[in-house]
Design brief:
This protein is an alpha/beta fold. The protein has twelve helices and six strands. The termini are far apart.
Amino acid sequence: MNIKELNPDSSPQAAYGARLRGMRVARGWRQEELGERMGYSSTHISAVETGRKVPTLRFSRGVDAALGVGDTFERLSLEIRHGALLEGFPEYVGYEGRAVELRLFEIGIIPGLLQTPEYARVLADSAVQRGAITPEFAAERVAFLAERQEALERVRPPMVFVVMDESCIRRPVGGPEVMGAQLERLVEFAARPHTMLQVAPYEIGERRPFDLPVNLLTLADRSVAAYAESQSQGHLDRETVSVLPMLTAYHQLQAEALSQAASVAMINEVRKGTP
């Protein structure tokens, strides 16, 4: 059998493949054996090991579970995607997939975890047209977002609280068809048993505590991590002294925002084109 030589220094993807092969061989497992433990074919394992296929978050978490190596390969997979993401965001996503509660606030656009593929693609294509990212990075962003959304569809899903500034639903993105489907997705999201969706109306004015998007994660040990970003960079914070005031501010925001029923009513009004 011909075994392809790997150069782990050639790219993060090659380093991932080389490390996977090394750990698999060290355990005396064939590709078929690892694949059976993960629910993947030996062909898929081979493609990742030789760098022909990009490892997804789902695949990487499966590797970590099969090999019993914590979140080693999950972190490696996030590093592969780092070029398409803001600084600090890959680290945040590592925690997001294991959080028991998520609290999100967004201004101007629908939060990523609630975006339809079409809505996400319009935003990515717009960034390409502006010269902000390459077409390859745009495709990676859309694919990566789909993986994040899939990671939350687990046996025990996290509780997800979302507060959106009214501008998120008023700002047209991609035309009536794309926007209509996106607003419908929001209504469906609000109907799920582990979600809470609220709109922060323009009327709350200066009482809105955040001027930038904010993500707050509660982990299994009840610790809280905060992620906030500007146009050019993101920052993950796990220091209690700075995170807890943000959690308090989020609760204040929820108190000022519309109830979920009133929020869904506003979204449905926008769907119908009424003011």
